[in-house]
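As a warm-up, study this chain.
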Amino acid sequence: MGGGPSTPALAAAVAEAGGLGFLAAGYKTADVVRADIEAVRALTRRPFGVNLFAPPQPVADPDAVARFAAALDGEAERYGVALGEPRHDDDDWAAKLALVAELAVPVVSFTFGGPPRGDVRALQHAGAAVWVTVTRPEEAVAAAEEGADALVVQGTEAGGHRATFDDAAPGDIGLLALLQLVAGVTDLPLIATGGIMTGRGVAAVLAAGADAAALGTAFMLCPEAATAPAHRKALTAPGDTALTRAYTGRTARGIVNRWLREHHDDAPSAYPDVHYLTAKVRAAARSAGDPDGFHLWAGQAHTLAEAVPAGELVARLAAEARDALRAATVR
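Now compare it with the structure written out below.
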């Protein structure tokens, strides 16, 4: 839930209701992440997590970024802003690793890969559990070998960025199949994510071998989330989702809009270079309330999202999951 919807208020509300709330640290400086962590701790004494983006891969074809920029000139003109300057950085990786260790964040999860064994052990020594998000069995094996405590198993149904280690081969396996495949190669605890919107969905992944369920899109309409108004409206309307690199240069799932249709075919695998290239234009479209000009991250079951307080949603999901599991045992 990086890039906007994630807030300290949302993480704290989920934690207070008995879930494990997460802060998204992507696209933020270490100082901003520190402030967010402190804000969560001012709201709750319960455990919470922070998600970090692992450093990106090298860009295979820098010239492709320049060609994509030329294709976006019309977007910049449409929204009255200049395109950004592409740059290749690591999202303040070292500083954020040091920060979550210093502040003893209870759970630190990783997307786009995981830290090497030395960093994993440093975090564990600081009291953090290390979770690595995986989209293929091979990634699960690699994360286990580096010492991860648990794996977040992300099915292709999930909204937002694919957590795949290598964007050249984004994992495209559905969640239930992936859970079974990953359970076949590791004994680590598994947290299932991707397309889970209801208590029955939670029950389904628990029955399939997951130890917990992680939900993102389901919380994007909660009042505690900072989801943009145009994004909120799109989530409630019927609309297909698709995987694309058209917004950030990395494969991600969002609701199909004009930008995705017009720029999907030309978008290179070049993250975060394309993210910086398009960020100002997308921000302008978001501010203007135009859902056709920015990313509408959403999972495949997004129309099931409800605008209810996060704590109420956690309680409802837990009750529905218990009922579903009980019902399954008597059939």
